[in-house]
Amino acid sequence: MSEKLLMGNEAIALGAIRAGVNIVTGYPGTPSTEVLETVARNNPGDIYIEWSVNEKSAMEVAAGAAYSGARTMVTMKQVGLNVASDPLMSLAYIGVKGGMVVLVADDPGPFSSQTEQDTRHFARYSNLPVLDPSTPEEAYEMIQYAFELSEMVELPVFLRPTTRICHSCATIDVDDKRLEHKIEGFVKDPRWVIFPSLAYKKHIHIEELQHKLSDIFSSISFNKVEGKDVKTGVAASGVAYSYVVEAIEKLNANVKLFKVGTPYPLPQETASCFLEGLDEVLVFEELDPVVEEEMAMLCASKQQKTRILGKKTGHLPFAGEYTFELVCEALAKYLNIKTEKIENTLAPELPVRQPVLCAGCPHRASFYAVKMAMKGQKAVFTGDIGCYTLGNAKPLDMVDTCLCMGAGITVAQGIKRAQPDAKHIAFIGDSTFFHTGIPGIVNAVYNNTDITVVILDNSTTAMTGHQPHPGTGKTMMNNISEKIDIYTMVKACGVGHIVKGNPLDFGSAVEIIKKAAEYQGPSAVIFEAPCIALFKPPVKYTIKDNCKNCKKCITDIGCPAISFIDGKVNIEPSLCYGCGLCTNVCPFNAIGGEENE
Q1: Annotated binding residue 579
Q2: Do domains 221-335 and 362-528 have the same CATH topology?
Q3: 547 is in an annotated binding site
Q4: 595 confidence band (pLDDT: 50, 70, 90)
Q5: pLDDT tens column, 428-474
Q6: Is 273 annotated as a binding residue?
Q7: Is 358 annotated as a binding residue?
């Protein structure tokens, strides 16, 4: 054993290694990304790890290995589970042989997501068990138990940490001795082929299995009841349990407490013991009222008159991340304990800063080139998920829609059908192109929809921390692989007009866009320029003496390196990445470059 200070995601990764995981797959997405990356950093050498092209592929690769008896883990964020839900729902019927953990990190708040969706609904929907850690230490223990449970019931098992568990740190006793898990190999069996007749039998089986899982969960320490001889109770799940424990101590409250480590299926025997003698229960859980509803249904089935309070009764908010202050105040009010206003111990609120593309980001040049090319024309600009979503910010104002991964291209097709008299430009990044962009291009060609797709190829998955993808020519295992050429892919899809260009070659970039937009039918422009975090800039720019302070360089492109200080335009040298876009904007040729040392 060794004591280590670990982030929650690191604890999960080391727990999986300790459990003998053989295969890890995933697609990057905050707050889950570090789990797979930590397994890779600590790989003893025999674990296969990959960033898959999307979550569906990752789920299916992990499933195939689990069919063969391997212990597998697939990682993603909550919106990624939507992409993987097709194989997931069938996998719940087919089952697995080796332990398979589906790690899905939820994002209450949210900090970096389109939605606040709650993965526990997917667990209920698919009839798969879900474990909900309350601390990083518990996440380390739970991931190991999840593999055991998966093999015991031959089903995939969810581990659902939320942002605060993923990214907070704790000192954890790590067992350095790794369990050895030998892969049996694939054995041919009709059970692996899902037919309607098998699906009917499997549906009955997994419904019956829920009772067994509930009994199993009533016997494990992740669920427990504390306190007695009171009429009021509190149930708490996930990180909310940790806040409740602190709040009870601060308020010196006498209350019966139910820790719910497995929100689905609810450990009914433990829950029934908890409800005994209680008049009321307040349920704390982040996001949706999953435990609250399960508790209410349990009371109804037993004709028990205990009132279940929580989000549905207005005692707690539905949306947003919970904090200790929120939990403590709600608990004090529920228990009618007078307490002083709790001081917010969080960092003071910072001034609101508009999200903005990095200084020197080539996406800014791409957006500005399209903006200039479409100037005076009726045009709609559909965006996608990635750094380039920030193109919606002023002064660029070049993202009119953003729905989900890959949808920018298909949404453009829908708008084109409804508004044929406008130009329709869809932006997508290189990693997202491989994720779910290709089917949209195929659809545009198949239905001959007159749109222009602008692929912003910066040679990485930048938003989540520069992970490789099929277009980079290397894998997560650091192997050199065949680089899949985006131009060739788009051509193979049947797009009739495709041009590659450098967005920082500004005049040429504008002309490329004009010609692509004039083309009748689906067209594509591939703007190639690496992310500024990958390369040292060749030059840095400064303002020359002939500057007239017209501020066009500020108001047109919104580069954070350029500001107006003491009556003069200034370029902050520590922020300038030497992209040179500003030199194309200045009408007085008042911006010059100097070679970096």
Answers
A1: yes
A2: yes
A3: yes
A4: low
A5: 999 999 999 999 999 999 999 999 999 999 999 999 999 999 999 99
A6: no
A7: no
